[in-house]
Structure formats: C-alpha cells, structure tokens
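Issue 218. Parser rejects a valid record. Input:
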Amino acid sequence: MQKRKLGTSDLEVSALGLGCMGMSYAYGPAPDRQEMISLIRSAVELGVTFFDTAQAYGPFTDEELVGVALAHFRGHVAIATKFGIGIDPGGQQIVDSRPEYIKPSVESSLERLSVEAIDLLYQHRVDPEVPIEDVAGAVKDLIREGKVNHFGLSEAGVQTIRRAHALQPVTAV
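Output the parser choked on:
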C-alpha cells in the first residue's frame, strides 16, 4: 500500500483510507458489529492505516466500534474523528463548535476510541456562530495538552481555512 504524508505534517497514512460511517449509522440498519470489526481488521491486514469516524456517527457508537476494532493496532494506524455536531434534547443534530463544547467532546472521543491522543481531529461542520479562530485556538490547546496530534477542517471555505491555519496549522481538509 502506498503511503502519503498529509500536508507538511509528519502524519503519514495509507493512500487509501477507510471511512467507517456506514458501519454503525446512515445507510439503513447498522450492520453486524462483529462483521464490521472483522472488516476493519482485514483492512489493516491489507495495508490500510487511515480510519475515519465521528462523534455524530451513531451517534457515538461508531467511535466505540473503531476503538475496539483497532485496539490491537495502536501505533500502526491513524484514527481521524470529528467534533462539532451535537445532539439536541429532541435527538436532532445541531452544529456546535463552542470551545467549551469542543474540549469535553474530545475527552469523550478519547474514551470511546480508547486512545490517549486523537491522530487527526476535524471540525465536522463550520459553525457560523463561532469564530474559526476560537475553534482553532481550542484545538491548539488540545494539541498542546497532548490529546490531539493534528487539526483538520471539513466543508470549510478557503478564507476559513486560511484564518484557522494562521492560528493552528491545518493538516487536512
């Protein structure tokens, strides 16, 4: 399997990654959990080292699935997850990237994934109510604390990316 370095960072991943959303959420009933764990482990055996999940998938159950499936491969794979989509009391998804939400949501992701640090943490959706500098600053703090290794943005425009990158380098978009 070919490898790629993301941006100018030291994060090297397989050229093909595995998006895990459909393994617990989104495309009809969730598939059998054991089959999905086997699928993820088979991907590692085939050379895949980059796995993508998010808090919103399930919600939360996909991170647990990925954490269990990759427990034996720590240090040999990179896990990307996302923050910024919360669940309101009615069960609806809402965009929420307030710094006071980011930090505890990352703590919960660390626990579900059973890792000490998240390899690549994406903002799932740009939150129009929160300046991107506040988001980048919160992630920068998490990187300084050793809880996150790299910062990514999903569905962001070029100006948003530039503003975020000026405060905390963006590894992936």
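Fixed in the parser; the record now loads. The longest strand covers residues 78-83.
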